[in-house]
Amino acid sequence: MLPYAGEPHASEPRAREPHPTEPHPTEPLPGDSSPSDLHAGDPDPTGLFDGEPALRQFSGEIRELGSRWLDSVLSDPAVAAAGGDAVCSPAGLWLALAAVGCGAQGDTADELADLTGLAGPEAAPVVTAVARELAATDALAAATGVWTRVPLRASLVEALPDVAFGPLRDPAAIDAWVARETAGLIGALPFRPGPATLLVLVNALALQARWARPFAPERTRDAPFRTAQGTEATVRMMSADVPVGDVWTIGAHGGDVHVVELACAGENPALVRFALGPEGMPPAPVMSAAWAPRRAGTPAPYRRAAVRIPRFGLRTVLDVTAHLPALGITAAADPRTADFGGLAEGGADEEFFVDRVGQETLLRVAEEGVEAAAATWVATRGGAPAAPPSFLELVYDRPFACAVMDASGTVPLFAAYQATAPDPGENPARA
């Protein structure tokens, strides 16, 4: 519970019990802690790390949030209007809600902890550590900014040293920050704070990475693609041989989902997974299979493997406010019950409630590399095996899922489903 004036700090953030199916406009304020400071030599300030990196502790929470969110994403009017195409960022939504949860208390803290795994003031070092460990993925940038009309508690500002804080005056300042932190991939928020908006928090993620082994452009050919609507279109299909060790299957209701993982360049690279289910399988289990832990998969029983994947680009804008009830967020969004008493100084505490949550996400995949970005905003108002076959070729010529994972391969930074004929778009990662 986040303390009010005179109440002692709780000893640890609120954390829900693990799910039984889970494996166990200013410059940022200066901070003198590194991720290793938070979970290695120094005493653990949260009591939750137990000597392990924060990201390893909470990667399961991020994946579960993504799984709980999928049905709402896939049934969103914006996705329906796009013929079923969707891209979202479970990691971006987790980081935004977890940061807001640092100022929650009472029932509001309880429901946010049930969704993100933690809430309350001592959650702040965890949120900081997770963001820093994600940003250690090569070519990935992560940032959070807060703009407010009321003074925030000094203790909260000090507890989030990597967050940029500024006054909520000109929305153009927020747009400029978003454009800068996403390298121009998202130019502005599709949201404007109203006069009653007290606080806007934005998390930005951006990835611009080259493949460790780029696709050879001369192998890209026109090929047929069967859409989710049953029509056929001609697309630009890339082709590459892949190590068979980077191909596995995930069992799902309705059949096995094949997953292939392609690494980006770097010593600590992002890992991009493409998942292909049986014809007619709904998108949710295919997307979940793409970000499922690699150890949950069954190695492909082949000696060689190749993939054919279309060039594609997706962009989705989601009004996540409509998804909150399905995520269990009700008290935080109700002005009669919301309790964010740890956000503001003085008498404005009772006016805070979650008024709007949204996310804009894009993903582009081509021969040279992958680009992805997300801006997430929260606005408050008030047996002996048989001899393996010799060769597997995965042809992504029908709807498929894509998940961009962090370097640990445990956190879905971006998740997408291509239902319609892919738009080849621009070739990312030319730099």
Automatic annotation (TrEMBL):
GO MF entries: serine-type endopeptidase inhibitor activity
InterPro entries: Serpin_dom, Serpin_fam, Serpin_sf, Serpin_sf_1, Serpin_sf_2
Bias-annotated ranges (Basic and acidic residues): 9-25
Residue segments, region Disordered: 1-53
Gene Ontology, cellular component aspect: extracellular space
Superkingdom as given in the UniProt entry: Bacteria
Boundaries of every Serpin domain copy: 71-422
Pfam families found in the cross-reference section: Serpin
Similarity-based family: Belongs to the serpin family.
Protein name in UniProt: Serpin domain-containing protein
Species of provenance: Yinghuangia soli
